[in-house]
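Chain A, query sequence.
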Amino acid sequence: MEVAQRSRDPCPLKSVDLIVRNCCRPVGFGYNDATGIYQIDFINAFKNLVIEAVRSLSVFTSLQYLRIRFLDLDSPNPLLNPYFHLQGNQVTGIWNDEILSLLRTARPEAEYDGLDFADCSGKRADGFADHILGGLMPLPRGGRPKSMNVDAYAALAEARI
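Chain A, predicted structure.
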């Protein structure tokens, strides 16, 4: 992406779908490997991948679909696997202040669907019905959260330790 960012020619790229996958853990290996929702180093690396992808949106002006997702086939909580999804001007997935700032710069018309400003205690006032993992992350009815503050994963990792 850095090479494309330095190029002066417009890039016709319209779609990117990137999957980070964790599968085939050895039997008895547990969840203390290098990837997963309980590994803060992995979450930080995933966050950095999203930050660079959002930063690149100012170069890839034709890009209308960007999806980055983590698939962990053995995850104890697959609905909490981190993801970022931009389709047109709608965004879902992980966020933090830096991602929001870069998104406002690169795509000012883009908006998060259901932006979750909940703190890590899970206190909410907007209709999310259930809380999982001791209230660390709210779970909306019918599936995974539409937006997740990436800082909530740190609390999730600490609770797991």
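The beta strands are 15-22, 65-72, 83-87, 90-95, 111-112, 130-132, 137-139, 147-149. The mean pLDDT is 77.
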